[in-house]
């Protein structure tokens, strides 16, 4: 494949982006802009007309995608090729939501049947817990789930459970523990009753320090509260690909839900890592979540690139990061239940595309994954939207809004929607100096003050945004939405020819951290590291600033 930045298409895009008129002009030139730049599939509608694109821009972006063999790369992922080249693994989170009669072969095994067996095991367990048949050591049903895990073993279950709060089974609550900071688990265990608490320990490797430490502390709490060693099996289950280590840890073999090395942590909520979700919303709703993701898989795998929602969103992000120097991308969820989604997409995208070498190990000479951040609308309008409108950087934005609320109340939802749409309009059109001055024409201030304030009220506009609508936030539409972002992340990795599925960057900190831990516990001060690390360690050892 020709070097990306020296390709003709890349050079043409570079030239073209310098000539594009303001989005105001693009809208004035084409009254059909929304009809031509919106796509619907899987219960979602994408309006991408408020972007710095015209037909030529899009044609060049799709040409760039085709030159990276995107269609073949998509097929390759779905069929289980070893596309995670540094860990020699297939990437098959799509198999977790495949239809039961589908076949996907890995090392001579049809993994769809293994996935279905695990879903059956999950369904049985969820039914027992939700029906009250699963009893604790004092023969009481479970009322509280404590999910222990971190990274992809935490954020997926937490964010999806939060998003689907209207679907929770009555009488069961869930608490998520991730950080090794004892305040996390101590706060979550406060007020819980060991007799009716079930711990779900999720760790693909069963080797993550935070999760092991938290699980040990949970076990000590359980025993201190009156549980006994032989009762552990009634109150602790594990989700892991490392069954040997889990049983060695003391987990009952019957209480271990398997997962596989062809599922990356940040792509794993569809597996038994999603057990806390299923325990809360029930297996029927969990399967609707899977069906929503499966529908998006179908769309992604079979739609022409020009009508392919993940591909369009990915190419727009490539446009801003590689041709306009955008360093971040903001996700604005205009729905309280989706308030955690930006953090989830942050992990998904930044741990996948925060890379600086290509698949072959060659250092890149272009921007790769942006900083993903965001929050809940309308709150952000009173926090960081000022910078989005008048800051010096370009920050493309995704706005997400369900048409219907789970809590219809007076005019609330109309106001939420009007804020969402008003923000995208303001970002696109901005406000000119003459418009600002005209707005001040009747103000009781001097002309000089009017001119000064008008300068401060100018908003450049031409700030790009996507708007994603859904009828209502349901397990199905949420599944489609999350799968959409998974595939958007994948497409960007293909364009940049990077491995989106390993995460070597998180290893060094862990290794050095273990060495620091040893030094903190040593009989003498640390002297062998850099001056800063030695000083910090020794200050902590003395517990005195
Ligand atoms: O599920 P495990 O193996 O405990 O790993 C937890 C998380 O740590 C990482 O390996 C690194 O952050 C993630 O990819 C993963 O989701």
What does this protein look like?
The protein is an alpha/beta fold and 545 residues long. The chain folds into 3 domains: 4-67 and 303-429 and 463-496, Glucose-6-phosphate isomerase like protein, domain 1 (Rossmann fold), CATH 3.40.50; 93-287, Rossmann fold (3-Layer(aba) Sandwich), CATH 3.40.50.10490; 504-544, Phosphoglucose isomerase, C-terminal domain (Orthogonal Bundle). The protein is built from 22 helices and 13 strands. The protein has helices spanning 8-17, 23-29, 33-36, 55-67, 70-78, 111-131, 155-163, 182-189, 209-224, 232-235, 243-249, 275-281, 283-302, 309-323, 341-353, 385-390, 412-429, 433-439, 447-457, 475-496, 507-520, 531-542, and strands at residues 38-41, 44-47, 105-106, 109-110, 144-148, 173-177, 197-202, 236-240, 256-258, 328-333, 371-376, 397-402, 465-470. A 6-stranded mixed beta sheet has the order 1-2-13-12-10-11, sandwiched between helices. A 5-stranded parallel beta sheet has the order 6-5-7-8-9, sandwiched between helices. Helix 15 (341-353) links the parallel strand 10 (328-333) and strand 11. Helix 6 (111-131) crosses helix 12 and helix 12 (275-281) crosses helix 13 (283-302). The longest helix is centred in the last third of the chain and has 22 residues, at 475-496. The protein starts with 7 loop residues before the first helix and ends with a helix. The protein binds 6-O-phosphono-beta-D-fructofuranose. 6-O-phosphono-beta-D-fructofuranose (F6P) binds next to loops.
